[in-house]
Every structure is written in C-alpha cells, then in structure tokens.
Amino acid sequence: MLRATVVIVFALLMASSCARTKTVKQVPQAPQRSVKTVKPGDTERGIASWYGEPYHGRHAANGEVYDMNSKTAAHRTMPFGTWLRVDNETNGKQVNVRVTDRGPFVGDRIIDLSHKAAQEIAMIGPGTARVKLTVIEPPRGEVVERYGVQVAAWEDKTRAETQKLAVQKNYKNVRVVESNETPRMYRVIVGEGTREQAQDLSQQLRKEGYRGFVTRHVP
What we know:
The protein has 219 residues and is of the alpha+beta class. The protein folds into two domains: 43-136, Barwin-like endoglucanases (Beta Barrel), CATH 2.40.40.10; 146-217, 2-Layer Sandwich (Alpha-Beta Plaits), CATH 3.30.70. 23% of the residues lie in helices and 31% in strands. Strand 3 and strand 4 form a beta hairpin. Mean pLDDT is 83; it is low at 4-32.
C-alpha cells in the first residue's frame, strides 16, 4: 500500500512539473531584417529616439563599445559605418552620426541616436522627434570603417606571401598586413568593404575550406 502511494505522489509531481513547463512564456525576439545597400543622397523620414544608460559601456552590434558621448546611432538595416545627417524637422537642428548598432525595435521609430547626438538636435527632453535621415560621405577626419576576412596569419613573411598568391587565384584584393604584435605576425586579408560584405565573403571562403574571420580595418 505504501509503495502504491509513493508511485501516485511521484506521478502527481511529474504532472505538475510538466504543466508548469508548458505555461512558460517565450521572450519575444527582436525582428531580423536584411541589411540594405545605401548610397550618399538616400533619405528616410520617421521618428527618432535616443539611448544612453544602461547601454553605455556595452558592446554595440558592430563590436565596438558603445559610448553615449560619441555621435553614433542604431539603425535596423543600414550597413555599419554608414554616415547620416540627421535633421530634426521640428527645430531645424542637425547632427552627423555613424551607424554602429542595430535598433530601434519599437513602433515606427527609424533610428536610435546616442545621448550626445540627441543633445545636438535638442531632443533629450521630448525623448523623440520627427527627423529626416540623409546618407552622406564620411566627414573629413572621421572614422571610415572597412572590413576584410583574415584567412591566415604567419610569423614567416614568405609563407604569408605564398598564401596570398594562392588565394589571389580566385579572389581580388588580397594583401599581407604586418602586425605590431610580438612576435611579429603577417596576416593574409581578403577583401575590403562593409562589415556585411565581409561576412558574406567569409561564408563563401569557408565553403572553400578557408577558416577565416571578419576583421576591421581603419585606413
């Protein structure tokens, strides 16, 4: 009789556990969107918001550490490194920002500005503003982000040059980059473009047996 009671209690506990498991809600995920190609002069209109704490000091989607005191922005689909002029259509103020992050994922908002950028166009108080975005060339002296795929690294420069010649049979823009590390390394880099282009190239290279990874290059 005691054994039967134990079995019944155990079965009830298992059923209760399963019931609780079924009621767990899944955390909604941010929608994934394709990165789009843009060129200087392209425009977009919509609502801008801004973000600061608690994101300050965390990694942005492009791998940089987010600094709310720099003029950067998050956009859903524009390539990382894209420069934008943001015009506040309410007061006529404008600021130039660089896309380093993904977002916003709220309603009809089209861009999240850093705290500093939001200050420049007087939207800290209101929190949001109707804006016009215009793709621009990188301002003189500002960061120009370019990315490639590192397929090998050698301490022997001759071996790196040999690897470069082999990769050049199928790919353009292959170069050997000398590092400042100790010991000195010679990195074989393929391609130079946006982060998204480098990611596509990395996938293609992996299909051909190269175990490369995307690396950032700032000329």
